[in-house]
Sequence to fold (222 residues):
Amino acid sequence: MIRVVASLGALLLYGIGTIAAADMARGTVPLVTSDAYCRDIQQVLAGTTLVAKNTVQPTFDAFVKSKPQIDPLETQQFVERRDGGRGIPVLIACKTKSADHINAHFGAGNARGDDYTCREINRRTVQGVWAAMSADERRAAKWAPHRIMLDADDVGFMGKEFIKPFEFAYVGADGAPHLRAKAQLALWDDWRWKLMPERFRGTHYCRTVAPEYVRAVFSGAL
Fold:
């Protein structure tokens, strides 16, 4: 069940009706949880057309120990589900490579040179799920998309912060559902990471709400 708490730094969801052409150029956020989910998220986050190999980890512990790779480009994925792993997907954890590392390794222009936030993945998931719903489903929905609030990312600097449990969905004091993503970005060229082993550099991690969970939020089933 979603818990009621006070809202802090919530931002209104925008641009529901149409996904901008600039967004589409970065790839498509999947509307179904699949074994290729984080492969597609890599393209969206980094703005690249390179296709990564995606490895789905069987347990969260295995995901924690895994690392994305630059060559061959490889992403890591773990799906967190309700009801002890038997229910619908709730959160999808992705480990990807940053845009600056892709450009440094494969050459300038292979990524846009910036990185989308994990919050942006939540935004586009909400947009896409609403757009895919039928007219009857929209009429029956408890929440219109503009009522779903997207909080700023819960950003961690180290991996131990990224893997901690966090409040990804709640009903705020405004009475509206709020969604939040967990993020960690260690840019390849960031001086703060220069002395770290290469496997920790040039990485972008997200834990974002699954499309099936967003559909449940719309329906009021949670």
About this structure: Residues 1-18 have pLDDT under 50 and may be disordered. Residues 118-132 form the longest helix (15 residues). The radius of gyration is 17 Å. The chain has eight helices and twelve strands.
